[in-house]
Amino acid sequence: MSPFLNVLENQVQLICLAFMAVVYVLRLAWILHFRPVRERGLAQGDAGRGAGYALAGVALPGAMESIRRKPIFYAQFLLFHLGVVAAITATFIIPYAPGLFEKRLIVLAFQIVIGAACLAGILRLVRRLSDRRLRAVSRPDDYLSILMMILFFGAGVLAVPNHPRDGETALIAFFILTAFFLVYVPFSKICHYLYYPFIRFDLGRSLGHRGVWPPVRPGRECAPPAGRPS
Amino acid sequence: MRRTSESRSRQILDLPLDVRTQEKAKADKAPCVEEGRLATYRPDGRNVQRFLALLSKRMNRRLALSMTGCVHCGLCADSCHYALVFPDDPQMTPVAKADRIRKIFKRHMDWTGRIAPWWVGAKRPSDDADLNELKNVAFGLCSACRRCTFNCPMGVDTAGLIRFTRGLLTSLGIVPEGIFNVSRDQWDTGNQMGVSEADYLETLAWMRDEVRTELGTDAVDIPIDKDGCDFLYVINPREIKFDPRSIGQAVKIFHLAGESWTMPRWGWDNTNFGLFSGDDALGAFVADNVYEAAARLKAKRIVISECGHGFRSTRWEGYGWAGRDQDVPSESVVVSLERWLREGRLRVDPSRNALPVTFHDSCNIARSGGLTEEPRRVLQRVCSDFREMTPNRTENYCCTGGGGLLSMAEYRPIRLEAASIKARQLEATGAKLVCTMCHNCIDGLNDVIKHYNLDLKVVQVLELVDKALLV
């Protein structure tokens, strides 16, 4: 391994990771400095269950009409985000547990997941470019984020075999892109995953408190609202 | 030139600000205007600064999260009746509408937008013309039904952002005339239709006499300001002004159920235009009138007549606006009806409602109020042919008159165009009656039925229960 790749995989990543952590902390502090809102009416449901339902929404494709009607979109979402997890995991495995990628099956599994994510990313970019309603709300950040993710996945597919002796280009590209993301993500739309638990938790607590979430299934008795005379 | 649907939003965005009624209110020396509770438009070139100052001051965590959390995935477009009916118009999607306030937030408060505004599409309004355009989006192209909120994978509350925007604009007097007029009435008379106390009491007495005649007993009464009753009944002023039959039906049912109840002389309006105008101060004032009436009369609970936004405001939002924790329990009259039917205190014959009936869930009751099953249980008891519309419950489409749109005449044509999806949904049920527990929805649905020539009649739950009663 060349000294450049070595520094890139280790020191550069750690510095960028530390930078991202600092900015994330500042981001969260900024969001949390805003005045919280709470329900003041007597509870009709369970705020905790509502929050749980809201947070589980990502794994409940039947819960939202918008997703239910678009199973292919959901499949893309799933593949794309599994690819994100796999690619990020790979950025740690390569420098810190390279032995894992000596097993052909594991490498293949990572390549398939990241490759599928790359394909999903391309489809998402095509959708953003071809749908005029999406184009109307898309900003440079929207385009760059998805484009860079596609490149990141592409580099990831080539990098996970982790054979610097056969050529370092893919690994260098993969880790340069990783460093780029670590610095760029806190300022881009990609940091939505940082907000996701807060947004869903807040919305879910409110709707849970009101007895809206989890939804009552037809035919199932709903709990008597609080404060209702016996 | 052929009019494309893309140009449809443009026509709405270009509607001018009309301040004639604001001028009249000033000339009339309306107390709410004189005392500064209801703002009027000031063409002094400083509205953008005021807007930005209010934006910072009123921002809360829930709103900030909705401002920052959107990833522009566009899934909300398939949930909005405007976007569904105008698929070629990019400005009709919830995300495009929310982005109009989001870009101001980003430019004014978010780091990235302040450092590199062009990168994330951050932009401040330039002048009052921009604010007027924002007014037309926030008030004219959204019924705040919250369907997009429920269909956002991130949980972004676009309807919440729209209401927030409305509130900022209301504080600058940059509002549709209808919003200003109703707000004025509610501030100055305590009810949104400007009903005087004499008219209120006279209508109640009239309805009491009607029920006495019908039941053949003078034991029927509408107690006013009676202490220590089981419940305080609060109504929609529309019931006094346009359709008092629902009061008569309620009085009859309360009497037959053997309830101890009262109505307040002041604080009887369960509706709240603060929900629509985004004016939390008005919301607090109106909701507090009801809460104070309940406390003053030592009522054991508050029962809210059939009204969608009235239920949401009185049962849920009002406590937040008024900054008080709920102490007196409250419920919709439909919940009371369901209980009385279940307990056998009301005897009914469903064959008296033989026509096929479908139920329209009010947005404010289903999506923001958690009340979907009780009305169905009541209808299944009092109707012989109840059929669901699709979609229903929290997925139902808005009557398209929500969010105060019924009071804004300038947006009526586009509202009715966007209502075609509702018309198809109603038609598909094959029902002859569409039941709803919301006065706003009654008018909204009647507009749709008339505009699309549907063979349907709108009824309320009380009406169907009354018809099925075995006296």
Explain what this protein looks like in three dimensions.
The complex is a heterodimer of chains A (230) and B (471). Chain A has 230 residues and is mainly α. Chain A has helices spanning 3-32, 47-55, 65-68, 71-96, 104-130, 132-137, 140-159, 169-184, 192-209. In chain A, α2 runs antiparallel to α9 (192-209). The radius of gyration of chain A is 22 Å and the shape is globular. Mean pLDDT of chain A is 93; it is low at 219-230. Chain B is mostly helical and 471 residues long. Chain B has 3 domains: 6-175, Fumarate Reductase Iron-sulfur Protein, Chain B, domain 2 (Orthogonal Bundle), CATH 1.10.1060; 190-341, Glutathione S-transferase Yfyf (Class Pi), Chain A, domain 2 (Up-down Bundle); 348-468, Rossmann fold, CATH 3.40.50. Chain B has 26 helices and 8 strands. Chain B has helices at 6-13, 20-27, 31-34, 47-58, 61-68, 81-85, 94-108, 111-115, 117-120, 128-140, 147-150, 158-170, 177-189, 197-215, 237-241, 245-257, 273-277, 280-296, 308-322, 333-342, 363-366, 373-382, 412-418, 420-429, 439-451, 461-468; strands at 231-234, 261-262, 301-304, 330-332, 357-360, 386-387, 433-436, 457-459. In chain B, the strands form 2 sheets. In chain B, strands 2-1-3-4 form a 4-stranded parallel β-sheet. In chain B, strands 6-5-7-8 form a 4-stranded parallel β-sheet, sandwiched between helices. In chain B, α19 (308-322) links the parallel β3 and β4. The longest helix of chain B has 19 residues, at 197-215. Chain B is globular and about 75 Å long. Classes of the chains: A mainly alpha (230), B mainly alpha (471). At the A-B interface, α1, α3, α6, α7 and α9 of A face α5, α7, α8, α9 and α19 of B.
